[in-house]
Design a protein that fits this description.
The chain has 129 residues and is α/β, with parallel strands linked by helices. The chain has five helices and five strands, in the order βαβαβαβαβα. It is globular and about 30 Å long.
């Protein structure tokens, strides 16, 4: 079983995403963060305890204060005790609009909103490899 975190400032979106994750029956732990800074702080505080870290993070690109790109950059500057897959989420279908053209390192996974159970299963399967 896997652990998944949903990080999105839109509460209705996170409620729906959590319900989809529960329906998938792939996760033994599902956490929702409506504040990306709090999610990041949680990861840093627990980086030495891999049992508390997610296998998969669905991360909204557009959030106030600490957006998805800032979160991702800070995340990549740390060493976690396990591989954590990040899937960037946006309502935009164009990678140019959301900033993927500026990514110089390994291109992260990307999905358009809304998430579906099929999208969650696809990325959970990838995270479990």
């Amino acid at each position: 079983m896997l652990q998944v975190f949903f990080i999105d400032d839109d509460k209705p979106t996170t409620i729906v995403n959590k319900r989809l994750a529960v329906r998938s029956e792939l996760f033994d732990r599902i956490e929702v963060f409506n504040n990306s800074a709090k999610a990041y702080d949680y990861l840093i505080e627990n980086k030495d305890n891999v049992s508390l870290l997610p296998d998969l993070i669905f991360l909204d690109v557009n959030m106030p204060a600490f957006n998805g790109w800032e979160f991702r950059k800070a995340f990549l500057n740390n060493d976690f005790g396990k591989k954590i897959h990040i899937v960037m989420l946006s309502t935009s279908e164009s990678s140019k609009v959301i900033g993927f053209e500026d990514v110089k390192d390994e291109l992260p996974c990307y999905e358009t909103k809304p998430l579906t159970i099929e999208k969650i299963i696809k990325h959970a399967t990838h995270a479990s490899l």
